[in-house]
Amino acid sequence: MKEGLNDKAYFISKRIGKAIWDYRLIKDGDRILLAVSGGKDSLSLLTILLDRMRFVPIRYEVIACVVDMGFEWVNLHLLIDYFEKNSIRYVIAKPPDSWKKDGEEFSCFWCSWSRRKALFKTARELGCTKLALGHHLDDITETLLLNLLFNGEISTMRPYQEMFKGKLAIIRPLAYVEERELADVARSLELPVVKSACPHAETSKRRLVKGIISEVSKHNRNVKKNIFRSLQRIRQEYLLHTPEEGEQ
């Protein structure tokens, strides 16, 4: 891997550094399992986190993890070649054998959970303290609207979330970075981006919500940032509360 980053990647590295500082995502001595899907987001995050090891005042380790969900990974070799060429430690993980039964209707939720379960298992086996995911600002804002519109609740992905009584923490260092910025970085660094092998990637509810945000952004370019900020600026006095028993 080339030492140092170009200007676009350096700009994103600063955003990542701010998120790491604001949410205390990485500490000295951390061993981080980074989930790599082959997309622009996780590959950009992997490249930048490894580069930051050159100059940050803490020491940490990064292990790339690809979860083979059994889809047609025709370009998996490109990722492996990239890891080996750049001396990146990696592991190929598998979901539980029972994650999808023959003839069973496909479920995006079940697929996602099985993938996450494989990552948890691998992190535990390798003694990792953090699990880094490539979710960015767009993912966080879209998840908020997805939960609001389809689940009737206000919640989203958190930049830092402890699991298993603090034995492992999920971190999202790209929380301040937009998807379009990652696309630019991946192109500029010529990363071996592999198209999603998910057979339902083009038909999910997330694409619907993405379109809604895109349309509203034509009227206000700060829509994504405003949605993100709204989660930190909750005005309790203007929220609905379930009346107590006997309350009129």
Q: What does this molecule look like?
A:
The protein is α/β, with parallel strands linked by helices. The protein has one domain: HUPs (Rossmann fold, 3-Layer(aba) Sandwich), CATH 3.40.50. The protein is 42% helix and 11% strand. It is built from eight helices and six strands, in the order αβαβαβαβαββααα. Strands 3-2-1-4-6-5 form a six-stranded mixed sheet. A hairpin with a 4-residue loop joins strand 5 and strand 6. Helix 5 crosses helix 7. The longest helix is centred in the middle third of the chain and has 18 residues. The radius of gyration is 19 Å and the shape is globular. The mean pLDDT is 88.
Features of this protein?
alpha/beta, Rossmann fold, 6 strands
Present the secondary structure layout:
Elements: H1 7-23, E1 31-35, H2 40-52, E2 61-67, H3 76-85, E3 90-93, H4 108-125, E4 130-132, H5 137-151, E5 160-163, E6 168-171, H6 179-188, H7 205-217, H8 223-230
Parallel strand pairs: 1-2, 1-4, 2-3, 4-6
Antiparallel strand pairs: 5-6
Helix pairs in contact: 1-2, 2-6, 5-7, 5-8
